[in-house]
Amino acid sequence: MKVEYEDSFVKAASLLGGEEYIRVARALLNNENATDEEIASATGLKINIVRRVLYDLFGHSLISGVRVRDPKKGWFVYRWQARRDQTESFIESQKRKILEKLKQRLEYEENNEFYHCGTTTCQKLTFIEAMENLFKCPVCGKTLNLIKDEEFKEALRWKIQQIEEELEKKQ
To answer: For 27-56, what is each residue's pLDDT tens digit?
Structure first.
């Protein structure tokens, strides 16, 4: 399932978290300079959840906060703003991290033989692990058989190529 986002800022927020991040990001776009309380009111989320999301977005430089004194209450509050200029570079850096992990996984898959008993709840084992267990599954005791997972390797190669092409377009 592919989800479309109305704004790259919302997409970046979704990469960090789930529905809560999307709701906070949309609220920030609809109300620049909003306080955490205003965002909580607009999203229907609890204030502590909104603050957690805001601090995470701030930690990734996707938003900025300005400390101001609340004229009614007299204490300091933060007014938050989306930093849309940082969105594309954040998404690109996330893609680069994912690309590196996919390449490492493909290398691991290509450099190892794997064995499995056929039970879906059991893990596949490397040749060394299978040998240490005398080719018997350590969980269910069934015989371990060599598995050739070319479909999985091909899916990894396809995704790596897709991300590399997306990154090349940006340059």
So the answer is: 999 988 899 999 999 999 999 999 999 999
How many residues belong to the chain? 171
- Tell me, rounded to whole angstroms, the distance of Cα 119 from its chain centroid: 29
* Structure-derived torsion over alpha carbons of residues 139, 105, 91, 166, reported in degrees to the nearest 10: -130
Confidence (pTM): 0.67
Q: Two tokens at 21?
A: 């991040």
Choose which CATH entry (3.20.20.150, 1.10.10.10, 1.10.760.10, 1.10.1740.10) describes domain 8-82: 1.10.10.10
Residue 96's H or E segment, with its range, is: helix 87-110
* Cβ–Cβ < 8 Å for 155, 105: no
The DSSP line for 3-62 is ---SSHHHHHHHHHSSHHHHHHHHHHHHSTTB-HHHHHHHHT--HHHHHHHHHHHHHTTS
Whether the Cβ atoms of residue 82 and residue 29 lie closer than 8 Å to each other: yes
